[in-house]
Structure formats: C-alpha cells, structure tokens
Design goal:
By secondary structure, this protein is α/β, with parallel strands linked by helices. The protein has seven helices and ten strands. The strands form two sheets. An eight-stranded mixed sheet has the order 1-10-9-2-3-7-6-8. A two-stranded antiparallel ribbon has the order 4-5. A hairpin with a 2-residue loop joins strand 4 and strand 5 (about 110). The longest helix has 18 residues, at about 75-90. Bound molecules: S-adenosylmethionine. S-adenosylmethionine binds next to strand 10.
Length: about 260
C-alpha cells in the first residue's frame, strides 16, 4: 500500500505535525515519544546557569541541532497539543500514546504540564525515576523523576501480566548516546513489550531509540525528526542493530510481580 511504502520502517526527516498529517487515520497502534521540553525558555535552573554537571543532556543548554527549544510558553503548549491531536487521530480504538515529559519549577511554582494534556484521555501517569538530576536549587528538593503519560483510547489493553510492573519505573538515563536527550533503550523495551502493538510511531525520534526497541520485539516502526543529523544517526543505529536481539530474552520478571491479595 502507498502509505506503507512511504512510512513503514522509515525514518522521515520533517516537521512533526506536517508529517503526521500525511499518515491516514487509525494506522498506528502505539505512539511512544518524548518532545523537546522547552528547556531553554526556563526561568532559571541548573541548565540555564551552566551547571549541567556530568549528565549527557547537559548538552541541551544549546538546544537540539535543528531546533532551539526556546518557545514562548503559550506557543509551546499549543504546539504540543497540536501534536497530541494528530497522534490521537492516527491511533485506532485500541491504540495508546506514551508521552514522556518533565515537570519543573517556573517562577517558584510547579509547572505540571496539565495545560498540555488536559482534555486528552490520560489514563495513568507513570513515574520514571532517574538517577540524580540537573536542577539543583535551594528552594526545593532535587527533582529525580520524569513522567510518562499513558494517554489511551477506550479499548487499549496491556498484554497479560504486564500491569504488574507498577507505575514507578527506575531506569538510569542514557549516557552513551551522542544525542543530547536520548531515551534509555530498556525503558522503551518495557513499553513495547508490555503491548502487542504492531506499528509504533515516534514523531520525535531523535537517535532512533524507539525504532531499536520496535526491532527488538519484531514490530514495525515509523520515525520522524526535524534534524537531518539525528535522522542519519537513527538510520545508522538501525542499520547496525541486530534485529530481534531482545525478543527471546525479555520476560516479565516474575519476582517483581505484585501479589494481589
Ligand atoms: C527529546 S528529543 C527525542 C530523543 C529520542 N527519544 C531519542 O531517544 O533519541 C526531541 C527531538 O525532537 C526533535 N524535534 C524538534 N522539533 C521538531 C519538529 N518540529 N518536528 C520533528 N522533530 C522535532 C529534535 O530534533 C529532537 O531530536
């Protein structure tokens, strides 16, 4: 089919909203993504004053290769809501979106991103506990987690027993990736392996982590990114990856299953 030739198992270099706009309704089972966080429009934190420390994404002080990550807040919120609307359009009734974001303190008050997700069918907020953080500030405790919104259409279901992972996940952030804000593969492996989605889209694909994870579990991927540099990084990574390498090893860890009373 025409759309498959154009999108399936491809990394497409283009704008997120425009490119998703070309994907027909209902054809993507699952979206896993992490947008730019608008970090450079911050009112001030560890990133702004240069105290990025040892973490790989301290590089975000300069933004991404082809996007400065510094929009007026209202414009940013509208952009992200436009992205979510497109994601909702292309997933079917059994589809879902795992939308990673980070809460932060702005002008002394918590910015919890409710303005972005309000009105979308948020079913759960998963806490991604990272090791350490960047935003040292004497006014509040060091933030050590990000959130993953599970935004789900009515018929979305996890595979049997995957719910036992609970809603607080601990994964060290990725530090061996030239991309300044890459997902750790294990985090995405957990999401992919917890569903039976066949076609998985990451509309902010960056270095290609979601595609690698899709390949690990023999699923199809679609990747979009504005940066030709990151698209090339993703294509190389995919080319050098042995497909299905996690497929037989990955099992739900029985010892971590919560016992229901
Ligand atoms: C947080 S990063 C995603 C990293 C990715 N999860 C990974 O594992 O490498 C956000 C990405 O959004 C991309 N981006 C920014 N503006 C965009 C736009 N208008 N359209 C598509 N991609 C965009 C950036 O180039 C960046 O790679």
């Amino acid at each position: 089919m025409e759309w498959e030739k154009k999108f399936l198992n491809k990394i497409i270099c283009g704008d997120v909203v425009k490119t998703m706009g070309q994907i027909p309704n209902n054809l993507v089972d699952l979206v896993i993504t992490s947008p730019p966080y608008n970090i450079r429009n911050s009112t001030g934190n560890g990133l702004k004053n240069g105290r990025g420390g040892k973490w790989a994404n301290a590089g975000l002080q300069k933004g991404y290769s082809h996007y400065d990550d510094c929009m007026p807040h209202d414009k940013y919120v509208k952009w992200q809501r436009d992205c979510l609307k497109e994601m909702m359009r292309i997933i079917p009734e059994h589809g879902a979106i795992f939308y990673n974001h980070k809460w932060r303190v702005q002008g002394g008050l918590l910015q919890d991103r409710q303005d972005i997700v309000s009105g979308f069918p948020v079913r759960q907020i998963i806490i991604w506990k990272r090791k350490g953080g960047l935003n040292f500030n004497p006014g509040y405790f060091l933030p050590t987690y990000e959130v993953i919104y599970l935004i789900a259409k009515p018929e979305f279901k996890l595979i049997p027993k995957a719910n036992a992972y609970g809603d607080i996940w601990e994964f060290t952030q990725e530090m061996n990736n030239e991309h300044p804000a890459a997902f750790p593969v294990d985090l995405i492996d957990r999401i992919v392996s917890a569903t039976d989605a066949k076609v998985i889209l990451d509309p902010f694909m960056g270095s290609g982590t979601t595609a690698i994870s899709a390949l690990n579990f023999k699923r199809d991927y679609i990747g979009i990114d504005i940066s030709p540099e990151y698209c090339e990084m993703a294509r190389k990574r995919i080319k050098n990856h042995s497909p299905g390498s996690n497929f037989f090893q990955f099992q739900l860890p029985q010892e971590r299953l919560f016992k229901t009373p």
